[in-house]
Amino acid sequence: MSGEEARGFPAFPASAGRRSTRGKSWWGRAWVQALEDTSLDSDQLRKGRRTANSGQVGTITISPGRIAATVYSPDDTYDAVVLVDQLSDDDWRLFLDQVAARAGHIAALLDGEMPHELVEAAADAGVPLLPGIGELDPSCTCDSWELPCQHAAGLSYQTGWLLDEDPFVLLLIRGRSREALLEDLQHRAAAGGGSASVGGRASSASGSSSGVGGSGSRGAGVLAAAVFEQVPGALPEVPVVPGKVALDDLVVSGTEPVPGLQASLLPLLVLDAARRARAQLRALLSGAPDPWVLDEWQDAVRLATDYPLLLDRLAAATGKAADLARGVQAWSYGGAPGLDVLEHTWNPDPGDLARARTELQAAAEEDLEITTEHNRLTTSGAVVCQVRLDRMGRWHPYRLVDNTWIPAAPADRDPTTALAVPEPLAEDIPDNASDK
To answer: Is 340 strand, coil or helix?
Structure first.
C-alpha cells in the first residue's frame, strides 16, 4: 500500500549455538514453511540456515511487499531481496472486519499473538494473510541460479524470527503498518462500526445483513445508540457470599480438614488454582486454542513438576514413582505435549516427517540411517538418537539409556537442533525408568 513507511531491524548477532530456524510461533513456522515449500534445493536451505545463524545478514529493512538486507560473506557482499504480494484495499477492509469482530483479536495482536481464528476467518473471507507455496519471490545479486539462494534463504529465515516477536511485521509485509492499522480501527470505532463497508456491502446496525463469512452475528456491528435505547432487564438477586475462613480455622483439635491433606499445603493449591485460572483467562481473551485438558495422571505429573515438595506424596498416591520421575522430566522439557509424546504415538502429516528427515540428513556430517515410526524419527549407528514430534509442531530429543528412551533436552522447532543435544548426564536420568 502506498504511503506506508519502511522499518529497519538491527542485525541478529551470530548465535553461539544453533538457533532454531523453524520459527517459535505458529505464524512464524507458516512463513518458514512457505519458504521451504517453494525451494527446490535443500542444500541452499541448509546453507541459508547457517547464514542466518552466522550473523552475516545485516540490517533488515521491511516495507510493504518487500524485505531486503545486505549479506556479508567472506568473499563478497550481496544484496538479498524477498518480494511478497500486498493486500488490496478491499482485502484490508475485509481483514479489519475480522479484527473488529472480536475484541480479543486486537488485544492478542498488541500482546504479540496472531490468533488462529483471526487468520482462518480472514482466509475464509478471501484474504490470504499468510503466504503460501510460491508466494515468496526471492532474488540476490550473487551469481547463484537457485531460488532462493543461501543469502535470500538466510534473510527469509531471520524474517521468521522477526515474525515470532511481532505479528505486526507480517501485516507490514502485506502492506499496512501497525500505526495505520490501529488508526483505521480507531476510525471505525468512532464511526460506530455499524455502517462499515464490508467488501462493498454495508452492514446494518441490527446485524441482519450478512457480514464476512455470511454470519450476521459474527461480522456485523451494533450501533451504540441502539444498545442504550433498550430497556435493561431486572438484575439477579445478590448471592450470599460466604465469609472468609482463616487457615487456622480449618484445623480443629489437631485434625486435618480433609483426610490426608495437610493444612500447610492449602496455600500451594490455591496458588496453583490461581495460575491455571489466569492461563485459561488469557487464552480466552487472546482467542488462542483452549489450554491442554489434563487427566488425573497428567495433572499429577504437572503438580510434581511445578511443586517438587509434592513429588513423594504424588508418587505414593499414584503408585508409579519411576513413571512419575520420567514424566516430570518430559513435562519440564515440553509441558503437556512433552508428556504426551513420552507416553503416546500419533500419525502426523507425512510431508512434515519427510522434510525433517531431509533436514537431519543434510545437517549431518556423515550419512544417517533414519527409521520412521509414527511421530518418531530414530537414527542408528555409533550414536542412537531419537526425536519425537508433538502436536504443536515441536521436536523432542530422546536418548537411549539402558534400553530406555529418556527425554534429553527441551523441545525445539528445528529437528536438527533437537537431534544435536548432548548425552544426558547421569543425574538427569530418572531411576528405574521403564519405557512404554
So the answer is: helix
Among residues 416, 423, 395, the alpha carbon closest in space to that of 18 is found at 416
Rounded to 10°, the helix 321-343/296-306 angle is 110
Backbone φ/ψ region at 34: left (φ over 0), alpha (ψ -120 to 50), beta: alpha
DSSP structural state of residue 149: -
Q: Report whether 20 contacts 417 (CB < 8 A).
A: yes
What residues have CB less than 8 Å from 42, skipping those under 6 apart? 358, 359, 362
Could you tell me the CA-to-CA distances from 403 to 384, 432, 436 in Å, in that order?
11, 11, 11
Q: Please give the pLDDT value at position 285.
A: 61
Torsion-angle region of residue 88: left (phi > 0), alpha (psi -120 to 50) or beta? beta
Amino acid identity, position 96: L
For 261: left if phi > 0, alpha if psi spans -120 to 50, otherwise beta; the answer is: beta
- pLDDT tens sequence across 304-325: 887 777 788 888 888 888 888 8
The CA distance from 180 to 89, in Å, is: 13
The separation between the first and the last C-alpha atoms of the chain, rounded to the nearest angstrom, is: 55
Q: Over pLDDT 90: what percentage of the chain?
A: 10
Residues 209-232 have a mean pLDDT of 46
Q: Which amino acid is at 40?
A: L
DSSP 236-284: PPPPPPPPP--GGGG-BTTB-SBTTB-GGGHHHHHHHHHHHHHHHHHHH
Which residues are within 8 A (CB) of 171 and not within 5 positions of it... i.e. 6 or more apart? 129, 177, 178, 181
Residue showing cell 543461501: 150
